[in-house]
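Morning, I've got a small favour to ask if you have a moment. I've been staring at a protein lately and its backbone has me curious. You're getting the sequence in one-letter code plus the fold written as C-alpha cells. I've dropped the whole record in just underneath, so have a look:
=====
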Amino acid sequence: MTSPLLDLFYQLRDEQGFLLSIEQYYRVENYLIQKLANDSDIAIQENPNLENPKIKLLCQALWVKSLEEKQKFDQAWTEMLQFQPEINTEIAQKTPIRHPEESISKIINPMDDRESPSLEITPPGDTQIAPETSFPQIATAIEKRKKITFLDNPDYYPIGIAKLQESWQQLRPLPLENPRQTWDIKATVMATAKRGFFDQIIYQKKQLYRREIIIFIDCSDSMIPFAGFGRIMKQTWANVPHFYFDNLIRDEVLRQENGWESQSLTKVLSNYSPEVTSCLILSDAGAARKRYVEERLSATETFIRRFSRRFSRVAWLNPLPYHRWYGTTAIDIADLAEDIPNFSMFELTTEDWENLITWLKEEAIPPRHFPFNPNQFQQGDNWDEDEDFFSAKSRLRLFEEENELNTKELAQRAAFPLGLSPNLLYYLRQHQDKNNQAPWYAIADILLSSLVRKIDRELYEMSPDVRKLLLEKLTPEELKSLAYQLQTYIQEQIGDYCSKSVYWQNQQWLALAYLKPSQAVNEIKQVLAEAIKNNNRVRLVRLTALLKNISAALADYEPLLLLNEPIAAYSRGDLNHVGNVLQLSPEDEGTPQKRLIDKVAAIVPYDENLFLFTAETVLVNKTGQVIERKPVKAYFYDENLPEVGNRKEAQNYIRMMYIPQGEFWMGTEDEEIERLVKKFGWDGFRSERPQHLVKVPAFYMSQTPITQAQWRAIAATAKIDIDLELEPSNFKGDELPVERVNWYQATEFCKRLSRETKREYRLPSEAEWEYACRAGTTTPFYFGETITGELANYNAGYTYAGEAKGEYRQQTTPVGQFPPNAFGLYDMHGNVWEWCADTWHDNYDGAPTDGSAWIEKGNDNLSPLRGGSWCFDPNSCRSAYRIYDNRRDSYYFNGFRVVCGAGRTL
C-alpha cells in the first residue's frame, strides 16, 4: 500500500516546488513509527490517523517555510484526506499521541535521552489544539531546525540526519552487563575457611555499565570543507563529548571548534574507563591537501598507540575516499591498523559507515576491499619548462589536469559568487546535472586549491584573474541560472541577515545584476549617494570594488560604470583627478562631492521587462571604407497593434527601442558651420548654432519609421481629432515607410496609438531625435565621417566627403535593411524625413537643455524635420541637419517615427 504521506511529500516537493529533502520525510515517518505506536506494526506507517491535527501540525512544522507554502500545504492536506480510505480505528485507538509542542521538539532534537512524560490522546469531548494555537512553538522549532538543515544542510553529505539517528540508536549508552568476571578474594577466603578446604573461586556479581563514546574532531584549515558534517554529527549525537584539535592531537585539546579554551588530554582520558569507551576521530589525515608529512605520521602514531591503550576501540573517520589516501600521510596512518588491532580508518561513504558503527560496537567487521585506480593517483606537477607557475592560466591548467570534468564544471560555477563558503559551494553542487555531479568532496578540491584564498574562517575568495578565466567559459544563460541560484540561496539560507552583512549584501547585488539589473542599480546608487554624502570612504572603496566585479552584468549602465573611476579617486582623496574626470572648472572648486551625488542621482535604470536586441554597426572613414565593425546591444519591447478588420497585418507591432539617458552637444560647432556654408553655398547650416549641451532623460523610440502596415492598423481605429487615410503613401508596400503624411496626421496617429495601448506616444522632440540619431557619436553621421549608398537610402549620386558615388534608388526602401546605429535604430539617415514635435526656430538661441520639445516663441505653422530622405543629397542626412515644412504639407518623402516616455503606462 502506498504511503499517503509519501505521496503528499512528493506532491509538495515536485509539483508545488517546496525545497524539501527526503531526509525531511524520513523524520516524519520515523516519528510515526517510533513515537505514535506502542509496537512496531508497520500499519502505522502505511495508514496513520491523518485526521489527527497533531500529525498535520508536525508535517507543517517540518516542511513549511512561508505563508505561501502554508496555503499550498493546507490545500494539499485537505485533498489528501478527501481521497484517503477509511482510517484503521484500531490503530488510532492504540496510538498514543504526544503533545504537539513536545513532539516537535523531540523531532528537532531526537537524540535527547531524557525520558518524556506520556500524554494521553485528547478525549473526543475535549477541545482539540488548533494549529494556530501552537504557532510560536512551531516557529521556535523551525528556527532550531534551521541551525542544522539550513546552515549545515545534511543533504550535502553522504551520511544524513536519518542515518546518524539510526546509528545513534545502535551506539547510545544503554546499560550492559560487564563481560568480565572479577574474582571476589574476600568471599573466596571466607568460604574456604568455613568449609575447611578450597573447592571453588567465588566471583563478584556482574555489574551494569554504559558504553561511552568520545569524539575528537580536526578543526584545521584542511578540514573546513567538512566542518559542517562535524557540527551535524555533534548536534545529532548531542550527549557524546566532543573535543577539537588542530592537525595533530597533542597534550591539550580544545573544548570548542572556534574557541581557545583547552583542556589537558590526560585529564580528559582519565574520565573514561578503557574497557567501556570507544573513540572516534574525524580528520582527513593529510588527504585533503594531497600531502605526505613524515612528522605528522610519527606524531599521529604516538597518540594512536596511546589511545589504543585507553579505549576499547579507536575509529578514524576520513572524509576523503580511500583512493585519495594514496600518496598522502593518510595511507600510512591507515596501515597502522596492521600493528594496532583495535584501530581502524574508515572512509565517509554509506557502505563504510556501517562498518564504522559495527567497529565502535566492538563487533567484528567483514574484510574491506578498497579498489585503487592508478589513474586517479598522480604525483608531481606537470609544468612546462618556461611556464610561470604563479600565473592564473598555469594554476587553472594544473587544476583542470588533476580533476575530473564534473569538478572542473563546479569550479566554473564557484567563480560566479564574489566570495565562497563551503555551504554555498555544496549548494551550487546540488544544482549540477545529477548525471554529471561532482563528488561531494570536490568542495575540498576547490577550496584548498591554488585557485582560491582563505580570507576568514569558512570564507574564501577566488583570485580575480582566475575568476575572469572561469567566467569566460560560461554562457549568458548559465550566468543567469547561477544568479538565480545565488539569489535563492541568500533568500532561503541567509534571509534578513543579508541586509546586516556587507559580504552577503554584495552577493545579493551580484545576483540582482544578472536577474534584475535595474533593481541592483537603484539599490547601489542609493548606497553610493549616502556614502559620498557621509564621506564614508571605506564604504566607497568596497562599493567601487563591487562595481568593478559586476561591470559585465551592468554593461548597459555605462553612466554608472563611468562614475566608478571618479568615485574611486574620491575615496582615495584625489580630488584633482575627480575634477579632471568631471570637467570641473576652477570656479567649481570644492564641489566634487555635490557633483558626484548629482551624477549618481541622475542614473535612471531601464525597464526590466525588455528583450535583448543584438546586431552590428559599422564605422567608415572619409573615403567610405569600413574600418571597424561594432556589436550592437540594445533593449526593446514590442507594442502590439490591433487587426484591421478580420485580417492580421504582416507587421502587427511596433518595436520600441530603449534610449538610455545621457547628455550630448546638440548642433554644430561654428567653425564646422562656416566650412559647410563655404563648401555647399547654403546659409541654412547656421540654424544648427549655437552648439549647446543637452541632458536627455531615458525614453523609447520606434526602431524604424512607421511603416504602411503599422499606419493602416492605427488609421483603421476610431477618429479622435481628424480622419486618416488608410493608404496615403505614394510608394506601396507593407514594409515601406508611410509617407505623404503631414504633421497633424502624424500627431493623430500618436493619439490613437496611445488610446489603443494605454501608453503615451508622441512625436520626438528635436533634441531627442538628434540624441537618438547620434547614439553617442560626434561625427557627421553615426557611421562616421561620411556615408555611402550601401549604408542608407538617399541620392548617392552626390557625395559628402571622399566616398565614391553610389546607387540612387529613386524611391523608399523597406525599413531595417541597412545597418543600425548603436541604439539599435534603423534608417535615421535617409529613406524619409521625420517630423518632430517642436515648432520651428531659426536657431538654438534660448533652446531648452532638458531634451523637451521647444514650443514657445516658435512658428506654430512650421515644424522641423530630420534625417534626410531617399531623394535628397548626403549632406541633408547628417545627424545635426535640420529643415522645416508647413505642418499641413504632405510630401512623398515625409514620414515620422514615435517615442514613448520611460514611464510608458498612462
